[in-house]
Amino acid sequence: MSVSKGLPTVPAYALPTEAEIPASRAQWTLQRDRAALLVHDMQRYFMRPYAPGAEPLPGLIANIARLIATARTAGVPVFYTAQHGDQDRRDRGCRPTCGDRA
């Protein structure tokens, strides 16, 4: 497995189709006035392990752009997270991370 600037490379793969996504089990209805969209870690650092132009990147980016546009049209706030790509493991919020040893 090769590594791209600290993260292992990810082989190309297709995003699941709508038919392949399980039905929601949530027992609640989305309320626009109580909703927010969180775009989490869509940074170059985290996208670098994927081959440019190969799935899932084009589909993923298109889907996120569509979600953002829909949220803005509906008046739903959009929030973004970001972290330094060279952040020390001890400073990361989620642990253990993939590949960490317990």
TrEMBL record:
<dbReference type="InterPro" id="IPR036380">
    <property type="entry name" value="Isochorismatase-like_sf"/>
</dbReference>
<dbReference type="InterPro" id="IPR050272">
    <property type="entry name" value="Isochorismatase-like_hydrls"/>
</dbReference>
<keyword id="KW-0378">Hydrolase</keyword>
<dbReference type="GO" id="GO:0008908">
    <property type="term" value="F:isochorismatase activity"/>
</dbReference>
<feature type="domain" description="Isochorismatase-like">
    <location>
        <begin position="35"/>
        <end position="90"/>
    </location>
</feature>
<dbReference type="InterPro" id="IPR016291">
    <property type="entry name" value="Isochorismatase"/>
</dbReference>
<dbReference type="InterPro" id="IPR000868">
    <property type="entry name" value="Isochorismatase-like_dom"/>
</dbReference>
<protein>
    <submittedName>
        <fullName>Probable isochorismatase</fullName>
        <ecNumber>3.3.2.1</ecNumber>
    </submittedName>
</protein>
<dbReference type="Pfam" id="PF00857">
    <property type="entry name" value="Isochorismatase"/>
</dbReference>
